[in-house]
Amino acid sequence: MQHRNVQDVMTHEVVTARPDTPFKEVAGLFHRNDITALPVVDDQGRPLGMVSEADLIRKEAVLPDPEGRTPGRWLDAHDRARAEAETAGGLMTSPAVTARATWTIAEAARAMDKHKVKRLPVVDEVGRLVGIVSRRDLLQVFLRHDAAIREEINHDVLGQTLWLPPGDVEVAVQDGVVTLTGRVPRRSLIPITEQLCRAVDGVVAVHQTLTWTEDDTQLQVEHPHAYGTGRS
Q1: What is the mean pLDDT of residues 199-206?
Q2: CB 187 within 8 A of CB 217
């Protein structure tokens, strides 16, 4: 099976700022390029951090209140310093959480979820910026047509990987949801088949009502040394 990776979905031309880029210039970059965040890079093009619209909005939060209330009193010292920053270097969230172009879509998604970020600068083997990938980019895999998903499962999963005879397992795909019916030669193949189908790009869920010819799971329980794992 072939899976799209970060390089396939990332934006290659990236708008960046330098640590000394003024606040108003950062705001202008957002407006002119219709973006909501950008990497801050050093002289070698290596990401140091990210500046987002939220970082700029924070400055509004510490402006004097017309009613005389203390502005930004909920901010800690670090966030207050960022709110009062005048350059991208002071505004940015750092260090930058980055991805590699060779990562799978799943790896990038896990990194975003773990670090609670909406986008990842993509770097090469020496840490230089080569692109940027967003949540929206990763969701492109779910735009695949049902027919393409079904064809890949039939050809790559059932045929080339599991070597199942054509027609033994029927595949239906509706809105990315895969339904498997039919028979497999061994019961132990059922979870393997499900897992392989779930790994196909664009699959939302897998449901199955597969039956089996031989219950090899019972054989493994009743004869734990049947496969040569016992002592001789």
Answers
A1: 94
A2: yes
Closest-CA residue to 7 (of 151, 76, 103, 85): 103
Specify the DSSP element, H or E, that contains 47. strand 47-52
Whole-Å CA distances, 78 to 36, 74, 84, 114: 22, 12, 10, 22
Q: Which domains does the chain carry?
A: 6-141 (3.10.580.10), 144-221 (3.30.1340.30)
DSSP state of 11: B
Task: For the full predicted model, state whether its pTM sits above 0.85.
Answer: no
Alpha helix locations (H) across the chain? 6-9, 23-33, 53-61, 77-83, 88-91, 105-115, 135-138, 146-152, 189-198, 216-222
> Are the CB atoms for 187 and 212 separated by under 8 Å?
yes
